């Protein structure tokens, strides 16, 4: 990749491409757990995110109860909706919710939006995604022309299987959802990133901006997070920090870190030393 000192770093990091659609930001952000609507709106704006994920079941439940929905308070001409199947425990349930999610996107005016973040989580205690259920649901949805972004554990074999059946991305967790533990299973995540021919989005467990940067420095295509912003002391500021962390990590990855050495290497020249 050619680069000169007069190029914009925004040109250098390049947009994120998912199923031929281009997104300027590599940070995706969720919409849950905020204290109020205004805080959520400001945080999403500060994050600079292009893609915003919304739990379909939560959105429909709020509508049924007649309460104000965050969806109504965002500008969907500037943001891309990523409906998700959070809360679904079975293949059949995830498929039904995915269909509702596509209809939600259409009602917002995104008539060409077939994206779905696929979550099948049958484990209520640890919230690890069901690998078999995810694979089978993804296969069905792909055949129905969905652009499937599956949430998975950091399993390199499953990641490759999902790629091979036609998923648009894979989204391995950094650590258990909402835990704030940061990037765990580094070796497995690196294998997934190195072997993938589709974007790899690190999803869940990130707690602060340095961890978002770490994910990007590994070569991840993007980061999706929610709790780290929504539950921070100052969510709008943390959203800004996450934006900068993702950008910094991406630039560092493309720039290429120096090789690690087992000894010190002087940075000052040895030539021109004064000799007694």
UniProtKB/TrEMBL annotation:
SUPFAM superfamilies: ThiG-like. InterPro entries: Aldolase_TIM, Thiazole_synthase_ThiG, ThiG. 1-deoxy-D-xylulose 5-phosphate binds at residues 178, 204-205, 226-227. It comes from the Eukaryota. Pathway: Cofactor biosynthesis; thiamine diphosphate biosynthesis. The keyword Membrane does not apply. It is found in: Plastid, Chloroplast. GO terms for biological process: thiamine diphosphate biosynthetic process. Belongs to the ThiG family. Homotetramer. Forms heterodimers with either ThiH or ThiS. This is Thiazole synthase. It comes from Gracilariopsis lemaneiformis. The gene is thiG.
């Amino acid at each position: 990749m050619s680069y000169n000192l007069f190029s914009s770093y925004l040109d250098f990091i390049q947009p994120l491409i998912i199923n031929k659609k281009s997104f300027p930001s590599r940070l995706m952000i969720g919409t849950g757990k905020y204290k109020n609507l205004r805080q959520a709106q400001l945080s999403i704006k500060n994050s600079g995110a292009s893609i915003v994920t919304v739990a379909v079941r939560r959105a429909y439940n709020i509508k049924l109860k007649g309460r104000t929905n965050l969806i109504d308070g965002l500008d969907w001409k500037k943001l891309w909706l990523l409906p998700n199947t959070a809360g679904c425990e079975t293949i059949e349930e995830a498929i039904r919710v995915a269909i509702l999610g596509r209809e939600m996107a259409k009602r917002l005016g995104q008539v060409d939006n077939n994206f779905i973040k696929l979550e099948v989580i049958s484990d209520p205690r640890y919230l690890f995604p069901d690998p078999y259920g995810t694979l089978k649901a993804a296969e069905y949805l792909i055949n129905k022309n969905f652009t499937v972004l599956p949430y998975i554990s950091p399993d390199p074999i499953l990641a490759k299987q999902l790629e091979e059946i036609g998923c648009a991305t894979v989204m391995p967790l950094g650590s258990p959802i909402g835990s704030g533990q940061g990037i765990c299973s580094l070796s497995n995540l690196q294998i997934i990133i190195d072997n993938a021919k589709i974007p790899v989005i690190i999803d869940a467990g990130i707690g602060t901006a340095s961890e978002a940067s770490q994910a990007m420095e590994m070569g991840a295509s993007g980061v999706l997070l929610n709790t780290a912003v929504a539950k921070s002391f100052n969510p709008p500021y943390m959203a800004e920090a996450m934006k900068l962390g993702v950008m910094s990590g991406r630039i560092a990855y493309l720039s290429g870190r120096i090789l690690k050495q087992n000894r010190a290497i002087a940075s000052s020249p040895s030539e021109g030393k004064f000799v007694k």
